[in-house]
TrEMBL record:
Mn(2+) binds at C105, H107, E140, H166, H361. It comes from Kushneria sinocarnis. The Mn(2+) ion enhances activity. This is Hippurate hydrolase. GO terms for molecular function: metal ion binding; N-acetyldiaminopimelate deacetylase activity. PANTHER family: METALLOPEPTIDASE, PUTATIVE (AFU_ORTHOLOGUE AFUA_6G09600)-RELATED (PTHR11014:SF63), PEPTIDASE M20 FAMILY MEMBER (PTHR11014).
Length: 392
């Protein structure tokens, strides 16, 4: 007997989806290098008669277009296709065959689910309107969505709304989460170099202790979060790298710190960036150090349109295979470049439970093949639910 989570058997079947997903997993490719992945996507789409546009998003992005049996509005569905520069620790048969590369975030599964939905809908385009299936490269820190938008995604493929999803470890398979507003945090990165005068470790008074200064800064910056951020707003500032020194008995001339700043509110984001710079300048002046700060705003916050989130929730709640739709989970401080698409087109981004798996970006992570048919069914239900009338 099938598990209650499993949707009715459809085309492509679970075995085909698993075959596709395992092939993508064995051959992970990182940002803007997804040439094999892109070629596989194109081959499958064209074999099912979809209209395919290639060369987007820096060269490896793909958009497939399908018109329904009746005229109507247009929506977009998006999947990310890139992997991460992580060495996989799994030993199963479909583990990565490329050293230092791994699908540690489930983009192999996201790609498979959208491919499955595109192929199934191409067989039975019983909806009113048009769907653009967006296969986007370089989600992991490189902003492939931003590149696609800048290259004219929404001008070349006009749409009334755009939708995305992400598998979510820790959320039970057969469950989903939909947020009415913020889903994922904005993401900025910084690289800071503090430079002074190196000296013998036995004679620190003859030089500048850049390590002491950097340690003080790392501690001081947390006060910007704990004492300057309103208690009802979430923000995280993390020092993630600390590079300095080569010898036991030398105070190094320079120290490099790297880190991230994350929050949801644009005004707060600007405030944190300003205060970070002010704290660095004040500390450098106190210690007599020179400063080089490279601060980059990477991703905006991913914020759903409440109207489109409600539509996704209604579709999910009507699916027998979905046991529960969470509407009250807190947003994640992780980030997602689908935010760039939502800045230019209304829509919504949901979480689909991956079950009790390793965390995202963990060397032991693997996408749960059991939820692939569920994702395919959701995309189809969303298309048919939204494009049965002019209401998108």
């Amino acid at each position: 007997m099938e598990d209650a989570m499993t949707p009715p058997a459809t085309y492509p079947d679970a075995a085909t989806l698993k075959q596709w997903r395992h092939d993508f997993h064995r051959h992970p490719e990182i940002a803007f290098e997804e040439h094999r992945t892109s070629a596989q996507i194109i081959e499958i789409l064209q074999a099912h008669g979809l209209e395919v546009t290639t060369g987007l998003g820096g060269g490896t992005g793909v958009v497939a277009t399908l018109s329904g049996s009746r005229p109507g509005p247009t929506i977009g569905l998006r999947a990310d296709i890139d992997a991460l520069p992580i060495e996989e620790s799994n030993e199963f048969e479909h583990r990565s065959t490329i050293a230092g590369r791994m699908h540690a975030c489930g983009h192999d599964g996201h790609t498979t689910m959208l491919l499955g939905a595109a192929c199934a809908l191409a067989r039975a385009p019983d909806f009113a309107g048009r769907v653009h299936f967006i296969f986007q490269p370089a989600e992991e820190s490189e902003g492939g969505a931003r590149v696609m938008v800048e290259e004219g995604l929404f001008e070349r493929f006009p749409m009334e709304a755009v939708y995305g999803l992400h598998n979510w470890p820790g959320l039970a398979a057969g469950e989903a989460a939909v947020h009415d507003g913020p889903v994922m945090a904005a993401f900025d990165v910084f690289t800071l170099t503090l430079t002074g005068h190196g000296c013998h470790a036995a004679m620190p008074h003859l030089g500048s202790d850049t390590i002491l200064a950097a340690c003080q800064l790392a501690t001081q910056l947390q006060g910007v979060i704990s004492r300057e951020t309103p208690a009802h707003q979430s923000a995280v500032l993390s020092i993630t790298q600390f590079h300095a020194g080569d010898a036991f008995n030398v105070l190094p001339e320079s120290v490099e710190l790297r880190g991230t700043v994350r929050c949801f509110d644009p005004a707060l984001k600007a405030h944190l960036a300003k205060r970070l710079n002010e704290a660095i300048q004040a500390l450098a002046q106190f210690h007599g150090l020179e400063v080089e700060l490279d601060y980059q705003a990477r991703y905006p916050a991913t914020v759903n349109s409440a109207e489109h989130a409600a539509r996704c929730a209604r579709v999910l709640e009507a699916m027998p295979a979905i046991r529960r739709v969470h509407r009250d989970l807190p947003p994640s401080m992780g980030s997602e470049d689908f935010a760039f698409m939502l800045e230019h087109c209304p829509g919504a981004y949901i979480w689909l439970g991956n079950g009790d798996s390793a965390a995202l970006h963990n060397p032991a992570y693997d996408f749960n093949d059991a939820i692939a048919p569920l994702g395919v069914a959701y995309w189809q239900a969303l298309v048919r639910g939204l494009l049965t009338t002019a209401d998108t």
